[in-house]
Amino acid sequence: MALTRDFRRSVAERMAHDPSFARALLDEAATLFLNGEPETARLTLRDLVNTTVGFERLAVATGKPPKSLHRMLSATGNPSMDNLAVIFGAVRRELGVGIRVRTIKAA
């Protein structure tokens, strides 16, 4: 059976109505970066920005031009760690996500 609905549109609608889903996608984007999948992480973060903050508001929050942010979060983007930190921070604040660090004992 063929899909009758655009996947991105479905995800965007769910994020708009379910803040916990948007927070889970932020966590997923961070996890993808840390696990060596930067392209997928950038695209996930881009979809999250489009649906939540928007690139215009993200530009104000980060002090970066919207076009630059679009390029950074494209499939071929190559944002610096500083820029990623600023983007993640702005989206995190928008979604009301705090960061808590915990240590795990080595086996």
Quick one: biggest sheet?
none
Provide the gyration radius in Å: 15 Å
Portion of residues in beta strands equals under 5%
Compute the number of helices.
6
- State the order of secondary-structure elements, H for helix, E for strand: HHHHHH
- Which structural class fits the helix and strand makeup? mainly alpha
Distance between the termini: 47 Å
The helix content is 55-70%
- Average pLDDT: 88
* DSSP E strands, number: 0
- Oligomerization status of the protein chains: single chain
Instruction: Provide the low-confidence segments as ranges.
Output: none
Number of domains: 1
- What is the overall silhouette? globular
